[in-house]
Amino acid sequence: MSTPLEPIALPVTAVACLEDRAHVERAVVLDLKAGVQRLRLGPVSALAVDRSLHAELTADHPATVLDVRITRSWTPRGPLPHADDDSALRLRAHALAGERLAVERRRDRLHARRDLLGVLAADLLREVAEGAGSGETDRSRWADELDRVDDERAECGEQLRSVEAGLSALHDELRQIETALHASEEEPAELVGHVELTVEAAAAGPAGLRLSHLVPCALWRPAYRAVLDGDSLTLETDAMVWQRTGEEWRDVRLTLSTARSALATDPPHLEEDRLTLTDRTAAERRAVDVELREEEIRSLGPAPVLGLPGVEDGGEARVLRAPAQVSVPSDGRAHRVPLSTCTTTARTEYACSPELSPLVTRLVRFDGPAGHALLAGPVDLVRAGGFSGRGTVDFTAPGAPVELAFGSCDDQRVVRHVEETRETGGITQRTLITRTVTLRLSRFSAPGEQGDRIVTVRERVPVSEVSAVETRLRKDLCSPAPDAVDTEGIVRWDVALPPDGRRTLTLVHELSATAKVTGL
């Protein structure tokens, strides 16, 4: 049984992109022969997970898959292009190589001439020594010949130094060109995988093959784009897909899932939580130590993660599908894939929390799409003037209300001033702390602007957790009286501001503590 040298193409037809990997499906029609045969399919990504490889044939053909495996090999560098197709960089390299060869030959000739002149000088000195020993005294001829040999040796050495310098410059330039050629034209060896499939067919004929496997280096995250146009808001749900698997996903059916296959078999970690009871000391019974602390009001959910967070799906695996076939190249960059678009009615509120910021923020509330849940992710905010900023969307159930902040209003400002008084009773030694918060709202309008603008202002009063400390909101001293006060101590006013209007809000609350309380 032999394997054909030419592999059969096995294109990617569908991809299910998970949180940190992808499940790739491939399909092809094979022309099978009767009997047992081995087929070579591919190429496929060398990162494919071997143990996840699965192949099956269509049920209407009498054939069985006996074995399937992935083989990997390094592909060598491609041959050099033809001389007529050489680039300017390669032609320059060829010219420098020829010039270097000519200079090296000239250097060799100069080396040979210098060695010959050295031998000639040695023979001349030996002749002078022998002549002087035999009584010859031809000083002028010996001096002329020695001077001529020394001059030629000096000239040859100068030429040799010039040739050596030119040859060193040629070496440097040629090395730079070869580096540039290696980076721009020559492709390094690449690890390529192929699928070797062993099939036993009862009869010859075509048969469909569907092959699937997992591959790392692929992930996705949700992204949104909210366009506000008056009372209408259009929410576009997209997916940012990254992949560096080594092969391009061309015209594939893309499915996006929040399933975490790597964590499916991990049991929860159980830790001991020991509770102990101790009697209070006499000093602890005489005094109640309290402190003022800041508590963020938030619902249950995962803790925020710096960097690229995971996909928050509310504890249930969610599946989203791209409405059309997409192509994602293997370049490791983010590619935006449209998923859905919905248009709904938006409710606008101008809100301000002066304790946190003196700015008035435009909040937009709307109902999410009923077709699918909104996963946590960034959202690009677009208004009539164009891109206005970027926010975040928390996990939202299908059809649940969503709140987005579309930036601050530059024509409105709030100034906050706080006064605090402290009194202590003579007999009961009860401490009374009174805080007066004054808020001044102003609106600067353009000429010709009409209509009041409702601004929702929120302040907070302390909430006590112990009976020794009591808090009270003095509604009789507040001006005007708050519209609502919730159990978390948040006081709310709905203030109507006309163009170029100003309003002043006053909030008074008291904090009363017994004599045993310390820390206030």
List the topology elements:
Blueprint: E1 12-17, E2 22-32, E3 35-44, E4 54-57, E5 63-75, H1 88-134, H2 139-184, E6 190-201, E7 205-215, E8 218-229, E9 232-243, E10 249-257, H3 282-286, E11 288-289, E12 319-321, E13 326-328, E14 335-345, E15 347-352, E16 359-367, E17 377-383, E18 386-393, E19 401-424, E20 431-443, E21 453-460, E22 469-473, E23 484-485, E24 490-497, E25 502-513, E26 517-518
Helix pairs in contact: 1-2
Written overview of the protein:
The chain is of the alpha+beta class and 520 residues long. It has four domains: 12-77 and 189-216; 89-184, Helix Hairpins, CATH 1.10.287; 219-260 and 312-410, no CATH class; 425-520. The chain has helices at residues 88-134, 139-184, 282-286, and strands at 12-17, 22-32, 35-44, 54-57, 63-75, 190-201, 205-215, 218-229, 232-243, 249-257, 288-289, 319-321, 326-328, 335-345, 347-352, 359-367, 377-383, 386-393, 401-424, 431-443, 453-460, 469-473, 484-485, 490-497, 502-513, 517-518. The strands form five sheets. Strands 22-25-20-19-16-15-21-24-23 form a nine-stranded mixed sheet, with no helix packed on it. Strands 1, 2, 4, 7, 10, 12 and 13 form a seven-stranded mixed sheet that branches. The protein is extended, with a radius of gyration of 42 Å. The mean pLDDT is 85.
